[in-house]
């Protein structure tokens, strides 16, 4: 006996003296270094990967403090590591009609790899922990994207001792606890003045943007953290939903890699990605989340990335002809961009779209652009809008001579785009002549493009008419 099923688990024994799934001691069996819980007679050895009993189990629980990887893995007897859950499921097909994994504490494992097939879908759910309760909005400025310039959403809590930042509220999720929009989830993105902050709330069911009311109470909470590189390679048409989780560090494996089936992030915090969130081959839906990775880039490869009611602090880039990015519901970008950066960036034939009646609000940009179309396509549907405030340079929409900007036939960008700021160079950066949305109109734009980094102007000087689509 040499392998004890090691080829199936993927736990090759020359990784060192500790089990990479969670730190178990390794022992030597016939010259193999083997995790001690895989020795014949142990619980794990009695239940090998893809065992029908595991594939039929509907409810799982992971408790890194009180669990054991020799347990059944349900709420009464939770596992200690997500790695042990993944080992038991392996690449098998889950037969349970409902499959739920409850994470009962912060996970700090070396890495995570999910390879199973979930025909009926699965939910991996964390827990909410209240940081501040009993807060009250004493003043509210409601969102208004129809105004020109647009008006962003601000709240003031005069009951705070010092500030939102000092109370640990920034970079967190927040829930309305009273008022007409009770239960709405949002983010406190940035403190704009003492005890005043920019917020975005969305309806917990429809994920449409909503406004809080004066004297509404709120609570701020953290969610369960999963620390370490994460490879989502699960399969199945119904997809896997991650809910109430924070991924504070997603390194290795090219970041948080999602492929082979729909993936849904609901009320999650995605942050500190070392390289990129790589979306491949399928759909990733980010709903009611805080994507908090300043200075980083989410790149979409051969797949689709949709945002509903989320706050974004990074560049979102379509990197290949098969990449599609959609602002499908009202979302907000909050960061300070440096020269050459963009909040939404279409490259290499990719497509970025703001859906009908959705809007993308970009705030406090630097010398970049809210939407940058480079060798790709940008598209605004009926009622869509790109807008923002507080810029210190840069452009609303920048269209390279190799890019296209699509909008409804007979319309112009005026009704769809509204980016204003004291230091904003121009609405549209599509040449040295045309610099306003109204000026683009139905006639197109002048093919003179300035390099955002160097200021050098290139192009033919000819009028270019953007391609169009039927409204």
Radius of gyration: 25 Å
Helix % is under 10%
Q: Which residue ranges are poorly predicted, with pLDDT under 50 across at least 5 consecutive positions?
A: 1-34, 431-436, 441-446, 466-471
Q: How large is the share of residues in beta strands?
A: 35-45%
Instruction: Specify the structural class.
Output: mainly beta
Largest sheet, in brief, is:
25 strands, mixed
Q: What oligomerization state is this entry in?
A: single chain
List how many beta strands DSSP finds: 42
User: DSSP helix count?
Assistant: 5
Average pLDDT, rounded to a whole number, is 75
Shape: globular
From the N-terminal CA to the C-terminal CA, the straight-line distance is: 68 Å
Relevant terms:
11-stranded parallel beta sheet; 471 residues; mainly beta; 42 strands; 5 helices; 25-stranded mixed beta sheet; single chain
What does this protein look like?
There is one protein chain. This protein starts with 5 loop residues before the first helix and ends in a 7-residue tail after the last strand. The chain has a 25-stranded mixed β-sheet that branches. The chain has a domain at 6-105. By secondary structure, it is mainly beta. It is built from 5 helices and 42 strands. The model is unreliable at 1-34, 431-436, 441-446 and 466-471 (pLDDT under 50).
Outline the fold blueprint:
Layout: H1 6-9, E1 26-29, E2 32-35, H2 43-46, H3 52-56, E3 59-62, H4 82-89, E4 100-103, E5 107-108, E6 112-114, E7 122-125, E8 128-136, E9 139-141, E10 154-156, E11 173-176, E12 185-193, E13 196-202, E14 209-210, E15 217-227, E16 230-232, E17 240-243, E18 245-247, E19 257-259, E20 263-266, E21 269-271, E22 278-280, E23 283-287, E24 290-301, E25 304-308, E26 311-318, E27 324-327, E28 331-334, E29 342-346, E30 351-354, E31 359-363, E32 369-373, E33 377-380, E34 385-389, E35 395-399, E36 404-406, E37 417-419, E38 426-429, H5 437-440, E39 445-446, E40 449-450, E41 457-458, E42 463-464
Parallel strand pairs: 3-4, 4-7, 5-15, 6-16, 7-17, 15-18, 16-19, 17-20, 18-21, 19-22, 20-23, 21-24, 22-24, 23-25, 24-26, 25-27, 26-28, 26-29, 27-30, 28-31, 29-32, 30-33, 31-34, 32-35, 33-36, 34-37, 35-38
Antiparallel strand pairs: 1-2, 8-15, 9-10, 10-13, 11-12, 11-15, 12-13, 13-14, 39-42, 40-41
